[in-house]
Amino acid sequence: MTETLFDPLTIRSTEIPNRIMVSPMCQYSSVDGLADDWHNVHLGSRAVGGAGIVMAEATAVTPDGRISPQDLGIWSDEHADALAPITQFIRSQGSMPAIQLAHAGRKAGTYRPWEEHSGPVPLDTGGWVPVAPSDVPYPYEGDDRGVRKLSIDDIEQIIADFRAAAVRAKHAGFEIAEVHAAHGYLLHEFLSPISNTRDDDYGGTFENRARIVLEITEAVREVWDDDKPVFVRISATDWIDDRPSWDLQQSIKLAPLLQAAGADLIDVSSGGIHPDQAITNTGPGYQVSFAEAIRNETDVPVGAVGGITDATHADAVIRNERADLAIVGREHLRDPYFALHAASELGVDVEWPPQYRRAKPR
Ligand code: FNR
């Protein structure tokens, strides 16, 4: 039977009401990593808007894992307490609250996009020395912070930090946990030979470069409820061809290993590891073919993200079995009610919140 955008998706015994997910998007609006009214209204309105899954932005498992000093965090119980009312509201709207657990690695500590300055925040104005798999900093112009190469003990601590963050996320009421291993942040930095030049158990061979993301996925799965989904976001390719890098073939090899480690769905993005990336496709659905390739080659469920902006396209991605979830980012910033509008456009009768029912197109 053909699956469509508005068919529910059951993963483990969690029923997601439709195949639309709000992509995690940093809001750069926290003080000390704490969620506040902005996050509540932002995430809450996308749940009102009918998305099956509302995923909170990259949420740092440690303070030095924040992309910007204004990122959301979940490194203490206070952080989880601030998120709890948000998950409760999202659930009250029939949507699934999800959280992306993240560590920015060598790309941590940069200005948020709308500041006067860009690039890394200097050490004397609140910045910090980022950690990385190797002694190789991201090539930010004028960055004199350096990087600190992680020791084996540090790696064990980061695995424990992800595990503790997942426990807190569970207590905060999230139904789905996503491990962020994309976009040139810490776990992607381990996967890619561009940023990982280690010669110990965490570098060199494919198996060694993949070790930390598999261990973190296992750790999150261990503490996440058995009936609830764990996702992993990856960059399917570095878009760098002229030297050893991460590519689609390695992603296809990684997907079943992530599944064996406890992941239920691979959220397939791309890029972010190095400014030399040569992204050749930026049009509608520009990463869908990567999701499709992983799904076809491995049978592991996937989410497709990138340039999905209209209902018919999102529906076609599902109907044509290219992905199991249509993940929509920027279009959800333009239109918090994307899913309700998509249903109308596709002629599917979905419940509108009773408060808004008189506005439902007939
Ligand atoms: C993003 N993106 C992103 N990705 C991610 O994995 N974690 C994050 O926290 C963020 N933050 C973020 C903030 C903002 C403002 C934007 C626009 C994007 C990437 C995002 O989730 C998505 O993958 C891309 O935007 C591509 O999808 P769309 O926007 O074309 O649907």
Automatic annotation (TrEMBL):
One of its GO terms (molecular function) is NADP binding. It comes from the Archaea. Keywords: Flavoprotein, FMN, NADP, Oxidoreductase. Its cofactor is FMN. InterPro entries: Aldolase_TIM (IPR013785), OxRdtase_FMN_N (IPR001155), YqjM-like (IPR044152). Residues 5-345 form the NADH:flavin oxidoreductase/NADH oxidase N-terminal domain. PANTHER family: NADPH DEHYDROGENASE C23G7.10C-RELATED. This is NADH:flavin oxidoreductase/NADH oxidase.
